[in-house]
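Lab notebook, bench 4. The sequencing result for the construct came back, and we need a structural model before the next group meeting so we can plan mutations. Quick request posted to the team channel:

Model the 3D structure of this chain.
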Amino acid sequence: MTTLSFLQLGMSCNLSAHGKARFQLELFPNYSCQRPSQIANAVVSGLLLLVFVVIALLFNMAEVEVNPASKMTQSLGHSGAAMTAFGIKALMTLVGVVLGWPKVAAVAYCVLATWLAWEYLRWVPNLLIWVNCVKTGVATAMLSTAALQVVLVFQPRSASRQLTIAMAISLGPAFLAGAAVTWLRIKLFNAAVKRAFRNADPEAIKPQDIYHFAHPRDVEIAARCARVWTDLYTLEKTAVHRAEEIIKAGVALFPDNAYVALVYANFMLDMLGFSQTGAKHLEGVRKFNPSLMCRFMLFVRHQQATQKAASSNVGKGGNMDLLG
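Done. Here's the predicted structure in token form:
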């Protein structure tokens, strides 16, 4: 966010100011944004900002994890929410540049903060529950501040001190509330899915009718129930079996979805240890017109297979190409 703010300095031209201050560079008020040299500077800043945002979005996309049993802190089950969240944060930094009117800017901040909190709460993108709780908690704290900012700009200046104190006091409770709601959201959703599969009769009902997932990403979220360890390295077999049933139902519900097919292939490779069957499913994903994120996951799997094959050749007396 600091980089975004820095790149926007060349475009901060006091668009909403009155009198002589309007269209003057905010950082250097003596320079006019209407001068040809400053216009060129603003264009360059805008292009650099665009390039930075695109690169940052790609980096966020690359955080997606192909191994559903990963314990890495930043592992994402799906990077779509992380990319959207970064886009929202980028828009937040632009509010002060584009919307200089305090009341309009305050409302915009509140709307964006609400969107950010909802994005984390709805999609819980990280594989680790506590990371999702922290992210939603921070977003909720931002939302509470943005909401009080809206109140502040519509109140007389005499109330600013009290509202500022209220902002500071509300940060902690808002964070805890957001984290608690996220934890409940995950637990209640998992409980509902498990209950549906536990009570379902496989002979009387089709897999896709056991639980109607609203979105393909929900299949991956529900399948995280397999992440139950009996020790540091061993997953609980009952949990893995339940997750397999959930993913199979998701595949039946979304038969043409590349992401769900990829989730199933990754599950077979890393959770069930079915390397050949999983590899066949990976090849089958390509016919579903996968998204850029899915293509990246396929690329990672291909690189892993290449490295594994190279290691096997070395073990059999072959030579590893360290420069390849």
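The chain has eleven helices and no strands.
Will bring this to the meeting.
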